[in-house]
Amino acid sequence: MTDKYTPRPEHRFSFGLWTVGNRGRDPFGAEVRPTLSPVEIVRLLAEVGAWGVNFHDNDLVPIDATPQERDRIVREFRQACEDHGIVVPMATVNLFFDPVFRDGAFTSNDARVRAYALQKTMRAMDLGAELGAKIFVLWGGREGTETDGCRRPDEAIKRLRDAVNFLCEYSLDQGYDYKFALEAKPNEPRADIYFPTTGAYLAFIETLDHPEMVGVNPEVAHETMAGLNFMHAVAQAWEAGKLFHIDLNDQLPGRYDQDFRFGSANPKAAFWLVKFLEDVGYAGPRHFDAHAYRTEDYEGVKDFARGCMRTYLILKEKAERWNADPEIQALLAEIKETDGEAFGKFSKETASALLARQFDRAALASKGLKYERLDQLTMEILLGVR
Ligand code: GCO
Ligand code: MN
Ligand code: MN
Question: Subunit structure, per the record (predicted)?
Answer without folding.
Answer: Homotetramer.
